[in-house]
Write a structure and sequence with these properties.
By secondary structure, the protein is mainly alpha-helical. It folds into three domains: about 100 residues, Serine Threonine Protein Phosphatase 5, Tetratricopeptide repeat; about 90 residues, Serine Threonine Protein Phosphatase 5, Tetratricopeptide repeat; about 80 residues, Alpha Horseshoe (Serine Threonine Protein Phosphatase 5, Tetratricopeptide repeat), CATH 1.25.40. Helices cover about 75% and strands about 0% of the residues. The longest helix is centred in the N-terminal third of the chain and has 17 residues. It starts with 7 loop residues before the first helix and ends with a helix.
Amino acid sequence: MRKPGTKKGFMKALKLFLIFVLGTLAFAQSSLVPAAQEAMDKARAARDAALSYEKQYPDQPLWKEATAQAKEALRVAPGAAEPLKLLAEIYSQSNWYGPAYETWQIYLDTGAQLAADSVPLYVEVSSKLAYGAYQQKRLDDALGYYLKLIDIVPYNIDAYVWAGRILLEQGKPTQAIPYWQTVVERDATDSRAEYFLTLAKAQSKWGIKPVTAFEEGIGFYNQGDLQAARERFARAVGFNEMYSEAWAWLGRVEFEQGHYDDASTYYAEAVKLEPQNETYTYFYQESERRKTP
């Protein structure tokens, strides 16, 4: 059984065929010639019958027939978008994602727009290829698919989520911020998106290593391991001594353990960096008051 999108020779031939179709747009007719319409009717009939298969593969006889008839319609009416759309649908519905994606792009290059019934097919094809690239660690390719999906279907929120996620994984927090911001704006209840937006902003401001250490410190703190938390907060300020929140958390860990001299030292650093922060100021003063005489 042939796996979708794995035949390089076929893909090359398909691209040449579709380039020919696109190149003849100037000769497009306002309606299909009878031979093209007949081929499309046969393609649709074969496609509709093929959908009765329990599972869909492009090598199944009815899908092969549907594909052949759609390509015949393109051959006799090369400038028409309608048979090109049908071929893209057939590739999509038979789960042949590589050719489907290529065909959808050529269809869109004609100036046509996705119809309502085409959007789910285009989204599925793009998402499958994008996630496949992501699983193979081809992050640039995956990001490219998701960005193109945003261009074509701008209300697809999952594409924004994945774009933001990939950019964070690529060490590009500043670029990730707009994508997570969009997700939060569209769904204010999405706590996951809110977390990643905050993370992206923190990494953009303080640096990736400091924030990674800081987040690990928070994790240890929540687990009750104050010694490990203290080490991670210390690591965070070691990476970036301007990281006021990390200084404050160092102070908090020491304060909660009754180490008021050290707490005062760390809160002093936090106050120095954020003199208007009332919380930092309060705990600095309280640490000072409780210090060993």
